Amino acid sequence: MSHPYGTWPSPFAPADIAASSPKIDGARFVGDEVWWGESVPAEKGRVTVRSSTGEVLLPAPWSARSRVHEYGGGAWTADAERTLLFVDAGDQRVYARRPGEEPRPLTAPGPNHGGLRVQNGRLLAVREDLTVDPRLRAIIEIPTDGSAADDNTHVRVITEGNAFYAHPALSPDGTRIAWVQWPDGQMPWQSAALRVMSLDDGALASTHARACLQPEWLSDTELMYADDPTGRWALQRLQLDGIRASEPTPFAPADADTGYGLWVLGNRWYQPLADSRIVAVRTNGSDEVVVIGTDGTARALDMPASAHISVDDATGTRVLLSGGGAAVTAGLWSVDVDSGEVVAIRGGAPTDPRWMPSAPQITIEGTHGPVHAFDYAPANPEASAPDSERPPYIVFVHGGPTAHAAGAASAAIAFYTSRGIGVLDVNYGGSTGYGRDYRERLDGQWGIVDVDDVLAAARGLAESGRADPARIAIRGGSAGGWTVLSALVRGGVFSAGISRYGVADLRMLAQDTHDFEKHYVDGLVGPLPEAEEVYIDRSPLTHVDRIDVPVLLLQGEDDRVVPPAQSEAIRDALALRGVAHEYVLYPGEGHGFRRAETIIDALEREIAFLGRAFGF
What we know:
Blueprint: H1 14-18, E1 24-30, E2 33-40, E3 46-51, E4 76-78, E5 84-87, E6 94-97, E7 104-105, E8 112-119, E9 122-128, E10 137-142, E11 156-161, E12 164-170, E13 176-182, E14 193-198, E15 213-219, E16 222-227, E17 234-241, E18 244-245, E19 249-251, E20 270-272, E21 278-284, E22 286-292, E23 298-300, E24 307-315, E25 318-324, E26 331-336, E27 342-347, E28 361-366, E29 369-376, E30 393-397, H2 411-417, E31 422-427, H3 436-439, H4 449-463, E32 472-477, H5 479-490, E33 496-500, H6 506-512, H7 520-524, H8 532-538, E34 551-556, H9 564-577, E35 581-586, H10 596-614
Parallel strand pairs: 30-31, 30-32, 32-33, 33-34, 34-35
Antiparallel strand pairs: 1-2, 2-3, 4-5, 5-6, 6-7, 8-9, 9-10, 10-11, 12-13, 13-14, 15-16, 16-17, 17-18, 17-19, 20-21, 21-22, 22-23, 24-25, 25-26, 26-27, 28-29, 29-31
Helix pairs in contact: 4-5
């Protein structure tokens, strides 16, 4: 049946999107079971832990969520005795829970904890003690007998300082520990060192690293990690003699990244198998999982995930892989690397290609070089548009900006495409997944390169005839919201904009944001006070008088990364000029929307907003 684009009848309701594919938060083999973390939007977005037996291992109201570095990660793990160890979202203490029992605290109130890891029966964590010093962090060992529940002095501090820490890894013999560390004032993808320390005398090895990720011990004398000395994150091997380290040697390098921006503490890009083979993710736009033999030869693993894959755990010849795919919903899979057996543990259902066609990766030539994007054309087997009409489009801009879109099937995208609105998901310069040079294209150029790239992508879409040039909107959150507002200031391409908790004023961001990103903008724009004039000139709030199209502003009331004052400043400026706009503040939401009622309301408002802007 023929309907104008944007008015196609769709089975994808906002409530369905809120309840769709689970957001997996880590997974583990625990005996014969698989345990995984999963967000529950219907329960205020809390994170529970489930078992493949059907058991809910963390009942309401408990929620496993860390606030270390604000973005958290690694908020739960488990030991061999089926004890769940987790960070509670409410008080940030570490708890232990045996199935059927009440959780008991392992740490005293005060500090935040994250990056939990059990090795050789010992519980390691990253600690952020903001009650003592807003910059004091540590890698610690937590006694599991509860002796530190009332007094944190009983926790063993392995290393401590004003740096940032991640990925503690204990050697098999328990005599040494490795971790990733980067200084205050840097981001981990700019400069992150590998540290190896003797637990007997505290001696540190001298190691070489540029942007190190995820150290793993292959034996008592060999360490593996990911680094990008040649511009692509690749696996490196390091030999150790006592505390003396050799020069690292690359292991099976490729024109792809085994690594990502270290925003959260729980991500894993590879796992060693018991027979010394390695299962690793390689990213070049989309993801591929490979099995690397001891001789460095790699073969692709045939499995459905191809986007934002985490290699969460391994046992024998099986690995746990979480992520999304071009033809499946987001999920968690157990994969046997030898037999090829793929078992969907949670989610991972095949999608209907009539409703969710694969998005081809396209490249558009921009002012600063190639711009990569994924093009989701309108798709609905039960509707079509008049031959004379070209479809409206919405350009998605990911946050970060050091992050990545990977072309995965998504009910949230089908929400638009099934209604006859195309989606172009853009990896503008600064995105990960294409090497360091592409990532560093944004250095000093935030608000210029990202904006030029999304404008080039939108123009290319229109010039190719795939989109109606008069009906292209732009949507993004956080740093993506900054790019939305900055692009609207430029004018001439987008007919509407949706900013979710977007940055509007750089000086306000530098003053109000949390410690992890306190100096992020130094590299993206310049340091203060030297670059203050640049901060003023680049900020959308400075040039809000140039915005002449409708704007929808969505904001979490409890956002600590981009506080509501940013969205409210844009709202007030638009109101003063009489520009059509809508501002919605969601109580109980932080940086990113997790509650079902928020997700539903935001989608309903977005589609209604686009209807008004595009004349549906």
